[in-house]
Design goal:
This protein is α+β, with helices and mostly antiparallel strands. It contains 18 helices and 41 strands. The protein has an eight-stranded antiparallel beta sheet with strand order 14-13-10-11-12-15-24-22. It has an eight-stranded antiparallel barrel with strand order 26-27-28-29-30-31-32-33. Helix 5 packs across helix 6 and helix 7 crosses helix 8.
């Protein structure tokens, strides 16, 4: 086995690899940029080497710097994680020349499958059904427009070296091809150092399903089931699950066998993923092969009990697979929710800053277990598991230089319904403050009828949230439960205030029983009858028993309301709370009846008028400004491009107008709500 493993990556995947290496007794080496000097993966590793400035193009994807770190530390193996250099043939060759093991496939397989254009040609030659498209490289926007017209709209513009949604655009017209082609090339160059592009037909109403393969250097190859990855935004996966709620056993077997055949055809070793588009009739089409570990690999690990990172390390060390195909057993259901540093209420724009609070739910181990590839036992029926893969910690900084994903929250259960409920509870209990994040959106998806039924496609987010995400409107029954919990919690806070003020005698009698609770535009007259074990809260014609061990100041409340659990994130606002649950963000006010009468007379403060300003929606860098002062612009016209977290965002005019003043130019770094330009 290896004496020292260097992880040529950062963030949660570096932490993930370090955990398995430590369990295997292998010392680890982290590499880090200036921005990551205090990062979690640096703290977790046995050694750490500084490799340069924050931009990945000047640190994490500079092969010479990684090689220097290997020589400095004497590492005899390298795990590349995903992204960065994980699918870089030159890096694999440099390691081979140095006599250092690459925990991944051979350079020849990376060359054959890592390049998406080449992989499609090989698949087509092997008789694998592929999506129609142009396999050659596209030189410029004019050629892209011509080819797109031949294929037929809509089309997908894709970076040859792409991944994680970077360098990808869907175009429905010539104008969108012309505009998106250069933006995609720029993203590809920034993220991968390779701006080659190709075009393929965009299949409408598709499902994105991928097969996990594992192969050793002795000719053995197996598949470990599939992952459903259809919940995507801007071609970036948001929620994954295993197995797919759509596949039947026959289709699973056919896809798996085809994936293994393709892997064998290119001499693949290590863990890899073959991605397919599957239509409504379960016809499947090869998309690409990712010659690396996938972000969503934990769901496969949870239903198979196989530690994929461990298997990658053992394969790289020359060991045979301990599993044969007949040994692979899918047990239960697993779901992964990607926690992103992006604000769903601002069209999912990137958010950076300090994590003033970061409290993931407690991880719970359950489900299937393996010992060096051999089954020990199935997970206890009815139990659930929670797993959180992360690369951050409370007090740490979320940087603008890297991918916005900060954690992967996973749940496992004996069936899909149980795994879903475990995920709902885990999301409710996940505390994140200091940055914008997508936890409310993830919660909303978990309760969406299309998702809960398994009836979704890759267009789910675009179709169900066409105008963006604006929070969740809880049903009336749930609002009543929240109102009852808030009233009981307010009573506890009021009792504490009487104690702090020194009025100890008969303090419970000094706290009234009648209150008015307002939330989500509704008003509830509430009466509380409390005892030592809880409260009977009467509202909306019913009485609910409320009990909890919540104390004022706690930012998470686990409350039993009417015999059912309710998890609330709690913030203080004047006269009440800010309560968040199941994707809803609710200002809740609890007042005495007289206070409620007076509150009805208060005028509503109007928000300032920003309709004539273009505000920067995220911290980022101005790439270019497309208009000039005095120019008339039309609705939908591109005004400027802002880059943040490796993604280019085009800001457009909301209405017709004339540019009065431009306050920022290309190369300027802006904060949220900085004024970019003003209109007459």
């Amino acid at each position: 086995m290896f004496k020292k493993l260097l992880i040529a990556n950062r963030g949660e995947i570096a932490c993930r690899v370090i955990k398995t290496a430590k369990r295997m007794g292998i010392p680890t080496v982290a590499v880090y940029s200036d921005a990551d000097a205090q990062a979690l993966h640096v703290k977790m590793a046995d050694e750490a080497v500084h490799i340069g400035p924050p931009p990945a193009a000047e640190s994490y994807i500079v092969i010479d710097k990684i090689m220097a770190a290997i020589r400095e530390t004497g590492a005899d193996a390298v795990h590349p994680g995903y992204g960065f250099l994980s699918e870089n043939k030159a890096f694999a060759e440099a390691l081979e020349a140095e006599g250092v093991a690459f925990v991944g496939p051979p350079a020849s397989a990376i060359e054959a499958m890592g390049d998406k254009i080449t992989s499609k040609k090989i698949a087509a030659e092997a008789g694998v059904s592929t999506v129609p498209g142009h396999m050659g490289l596209i030189e410029d926007a004019a050629e892209a427009i011509r080819i797109s017209g031949e294929i037929g709209y809509p089309v997908m513009l894709k970076a040859s070296a792409g991944g994680g949604g970077k360098g990808m655009r869907i175009a429905w017209s010539e104008d969108e091809v012309a505009e998106g082609f250069q933006a995609s090339k720029n993203e590809a160059a920034s993220s991968f150092g390779d701006d080659r592009m190709f075009i393929e037909k965009f299949v409408t109403q598709p499902r994105h399903i991928e097969i996990q393969v594992l192969a050793d250097k002795h000719g053995n190859a197996i598949y470990l089931g599939e992952r459903e990855c259809s919940i995507q935004r801007r071609n970036q996966k948001v929620i994954e699950e295993a197995p797919s709620p759509f596949l039947d056993e026959a289709t699973r077997k056919a896809m798996g066998e085809e994936a293994v055949s393709l892997a064998k055809a290119v001499g693949y070793t290590s863990a890899g993923t073959v991605e397919f588009i599957v239509d409504g009739d379960r016809n499947f089409y090869f998309l690409e092969m990712n010659t690396r570990l996938q972000v969503e690999h934990p769901v496969t690990e949870l239903i198979t009990g196989v530690d994929l990172v461990e298997q990658m390390i053992r394969v790289a060390a020359g060991e045979k697979l301990a599993l044969a195909q007949d040994d692979v057993k899918l047990t239960g259901w697993a779901i992964e929710s990607r926690l992103y540093a992006e604000d769903p209420y601002r069209n999912f724009l990137p958010s950076i800053g300090r994590l003033t609070r970061y409290r993931p739910p407690v991880e719970v181990a359950a489900g299937p277990m393996l010992d060096n590839g051999k089954w020990l036992e199935e997970g206890p029926e009815g139990e659930t598991a929670v797993r959180n893969d992360t690369g951050v910690y409370e007090g740490g900084e979320i940087s603008m230089y890297y991918d916005p994903m900060i954690a992967k929250l996973c749940s496992w259960g004996p069936d899909r319904a149980t795994a879903l409920e475990a995920m709902r509870v885990a999301l409710d209990g996940f505390e994140v403050e200091g940055i914008g994040h997508n936890l409310p959106f993830l919660s909303a998806v978990m309760d969406h009828p299309k998702f809960t039924s398994g009836d979704m496609t890759t267009a789910f987010i675009a179709e169900e949230y066409p105008d963006g995400f604006h929070g969740v409107d809880l049903p009336d029954a749930e609002l009543i439960r929240v109102a009852a919990a808030a009233a009981a919690m307010h009573r506890v806070a009021e009792i504490r205030r009487t104690r702090v003020s020194g009025r100890m005698d008969n303090h419970e009698r000094r706290v009234g029983a009648d209150w008015v609770v307002t939330l989500a535009g509704q008003r509830f007259d509430v009466t509380i009858d409390a005892d030592h074990d809880g409260s009977d809260v009467t509202l909306a014609g019913q009485t609910l028993r409320v009990s909890s061990d919540w104390t004022p100041g706690d930012q998470l409340a686990r409350v039993d309301v009417g015999g059912q659990p309710l998890v609330l994130k709690v913030g203080k606002v004047p006269g009440g709370f800010r309560l968040r649950t199941r994707g809803a963000d609710l200002p809740v006010h609890i007042r005495t009846p007289r206070q409620a009468e007076l509150a009805d007379l208060m005028p509503i403060k109007e928000a300032p008028d920003t309709s004539k300003l273009l505000l920067c929606p995220m911290p980022g860098l101005i790439v270019k400004v497309d208009v000039e002062e005095g120019q008339e612009v039309q609705e939908g016209q591109a005004l400027c491009t802002v880059e943040a977290m490796k993604m280019e965002n085009i800001l457009r005019a909301e209405r017709k107008g004339i540019v009065q003043k431009i306050n920022a130019g290309a190369g300027d770094s802006l904060a949220v709500d900085d004024v970019i330009m003003e209109f007459e």
